[in-house]
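In response to reviewer comment 3 from the previous cycle, which asked for concrete evidence that the modeling workflow produces usable outputs, we include below a single protein chain processed end to end. The sequence was submitted unchanged, and the resulting structure tokens are shown without manual editing.
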Amino acid sequence: MANAQNKIEISANGHTMTATLADTEAARQLWTKLESGSITVRMNDYGGFEKVGDLPWSLPTSNTSITTSAGDIMLYQGRSIVIFYGSNSWSYTPLGKIDGAGASEIRNYLSGSPVSVTISRASQAGIDHVGVSTTHEPEIYTLQGRKVDLGTRKISDLPTGVYIVDGKKQFIK
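The workflow returned the following structure tokens.
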């Protein structure tokens, strides 16, 4: 998957975790289906090592025998999503892995049985908006280290010379 398209968010009990999707057809189709919006899955404990719940649709399987670890997200029988906070060996299709959370943290996030888990596409970047502030007053210093107060003047109104403007050397004509 392309780098910007490989993160999902998993929210439960007021907490949100991110997960990196696996490079499987099932994970790609999950990503595509989440384009229409988030889904909420009712998940239950199973075996003391996982939460399991049914997806609203089936996904393609490519099952392999896997020993899971905390944070693994798997597809079971084409329709069930499984989030592990422990380990199990079985035949699953990988969907992804929770980023940077350990077993106890995942167990706490997903506490309760059943628990409603919302799965959505993660923001594509940590930056939501890039803009230019029009009210920024530049910090201007002479080469002798004296701060220049522009008042109502513009930088172009300064006498010709070299100044330090916002930490960068600038020649004013």
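Helices lie at 25-33, 103-109. We consider this sufficient to address the reviewer's concern, and the full set will be provided in the supplementary archive.
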